């Protein structure tokens, strides 16, 4: 069975219709199912001294990945061979790719920002970033949205597709379990520092290749290709994340705008270094340019999937 063809079907389905609201209202979404499991386990087991939390969190991380991956492996084993197996596998993988929703969330920021409605733009960007948007100006909103676009293109699209190509349904499902755990418990605070450490480290490992592939797509498809590659290579390592700096630095270089930098999370100020320091802050129109770069990069990814599918990969 061609896993590349399966991921191509999933990507095209998601690009065309996303995950319909009516379907979500009726059955939810696989990621919310995984999230409910993680939440229940964390509430019950995240207790005791740091050493206990560390061990228990590692056990939960391993257990959730094995359970989700095992269910997906059983479903894949039940698929028929040939074209029907590829099509059904693509349908099963479809909700685990987020091409359309990523575009919709960022476009919801672009429209009011370009129209000068800062309040609505702040509200829209609050849906995709963790920082407090209440004090952000136009440049701050555009910068936050561009960073989220770059990082989440890797986490929400390229990485699941990559692992789906490697291992089919078990690969994409296990990755989504890892990434969901990282987003829920992989935080460096009093509650999750120890319990979520294994999930955070596993997520770093799972995104090692996809983040760099995402940066490559952005750099190759940007108007300033040479600058994008130069800034990505120079600045990716400055980011607090071992992976997010690659797509974010490529986006910064491709648009010739600075990203990252100091930001506020709750009552804390994170003194992050700039990516592509010395370049201007992004303007509202630059967010639209970033979204156009995203579309080109995702078209290229789908093209690669099509070539691999035709080659029988």
Task: Note down, in words, how this protein is organized.
Helix content is 71%, strand content 3%. By secondary structure, it is mainly alpha-helical. It has one domain. A two-stranded antiparallel sheet has the order 1-4. The protein has a two-stranded antiparallel sheet with strand order 2-3. Strand 2 (263-265) and strand 3 (268-270) form a beta hairpin. Helix 4 crosses helix 8 (138-185) and helix 8 (138-185) runs antiparallel to helix 12. It is globular, with a radius of gyration of 19 Å. The protein starts with a helix and ends with a helix. The model has no long low-confidence stretch (mean pLDDT 94).
List keywords for this structure.
two-stranded antiparallel sheet; 313 residues; 71% helix; 13 helices
Give a short overview.
The chain is built from 13 helices and four strands. With 313 residues, the protein is mainly alpha-helical.
Topology:
Blueprint: H1 3-17, H2 21-27, H3 30-45, H4 50-77, H5 83-93, H6 99-115, H7 118-125, H8 138-185, H9 197-206, H10 208-221, H11 225-235, H12 245-255, E1 259-260, E2 263-265, E3 268-270, E4 274-275, H13 284-310
Antiparallel strand pairs: 1-4, 2-3
Helix pairs in contact: 1-5, 1-8, 1-13, 3-4, 3-8, 4-8, 6-7, 6-8, 6-13, 7-8, 8-9, 8-10, 8-12, 8-13, 10-11, 10-12, 10-13, 11-12
């Amino acid at each position: 069975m061609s896993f590349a063809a399966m991921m191509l079907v999933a990507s095209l389905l998601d690009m065309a219709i996303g995950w319909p609201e009516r379907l979500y209202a009726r059955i939810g979404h696989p990621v919310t199912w995984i999230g409910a499991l993680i939440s229940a386990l964390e509430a019950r087991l995240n207790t005791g001294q740091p050493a206990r939390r560390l061990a228990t969190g590692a056990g939960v991380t391993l257990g959730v990945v094995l359970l989700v991956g095992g269910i997906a492996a059983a479903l894949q084993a039940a698929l028929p061979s040939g074209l029907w197996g590829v099509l059904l596998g693509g349908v099963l993988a479809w909700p685990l790719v987020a091409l359309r929703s990523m575009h919709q969330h960022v476009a919801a920021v672009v429209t009011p920002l370009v129209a000068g409605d800062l309040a609505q733009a702040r509200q829209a960007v609050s849906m995709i970033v963790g920082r407090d948007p209440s004090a952000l100006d136009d440049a701050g909103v555009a910068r936050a949205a561009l960073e989220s676009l770059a990082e989440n293109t890797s986490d929400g699209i390229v990485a699941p597709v990559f692992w789906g190509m490697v291992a089919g349904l078990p690969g994409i499902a296990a990755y989504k379990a890892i990434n969901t755990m990282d987003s829920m418990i992989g935080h460096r605070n009093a509650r999750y520092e120890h319990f979520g450490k294994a999930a955070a480290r596993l997520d770093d490992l799972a995104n090692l290749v996809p983040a760099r592939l995402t940066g490559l797509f952005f750099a190759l498809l940007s108007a300033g290709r040479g600058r994008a590659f130069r800034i990505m290579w120079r600045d990716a390592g400055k980011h607090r994340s071992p992976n997010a700096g690659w797509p974010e630095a490529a986006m910064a270089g491709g648009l010739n705008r600075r990203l990252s930098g100091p930001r506020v999370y709750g009552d804390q100020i994170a003194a992050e270094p700039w990516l592509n320091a010395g370049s201007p802050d992004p303007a509202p129109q630059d967010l639209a340019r970033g979204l156009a770069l995203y579309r080109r990069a995702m078209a290229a990814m789908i093209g690669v999937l099509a070539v691999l599918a035709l080659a029988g990969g």
